Give the backbone structure.
Amino acid sequence: MLFSCKFQVLAVKKIIFSAFSSHPSDLFIELVANISSLNHPNLAELAGYCSEHGQCLLVYEFYQNGSLHDFLHMKDEHSKPLSWNNRVKIALGSARALE
C-alpha cells in the first residue's frame, strides 16, 4: 500500500475580541463570511478558520516573502523599496477588493 502526503505551510492569525462587548463568536462568523467573499491578487485567500475553546483563528496560505506590511516596509539593504506608483496600485487594488 502506498501513501502520498502533501505538506502545506500555512499562516495562522489569532483574532482577539477582548475589546468588543458583544458575543465574539457572532462577530467572528461575520468576519469569516466577509473575508471568504474577497477575491483579489493582492489579498491572501482564506484557507480555513477555527472557533473553539474561546480561540478565533484564521488560516491563510503562507507567503514566504512575508506580509504586505513587511513588503512595504522592507529594511533589508539588498531589497529595493516599492515605488510610490506601485504602492498606490496595491492600495487601490486592495480597496477595490474590499469594496
Observations:
- The radius of gyration is 17 Å.
- The first strand starts at residue 10 and ends at 15.
- The helical segments are 24-36, 68-72, 84-98.
- The mean pLDDT is 78.
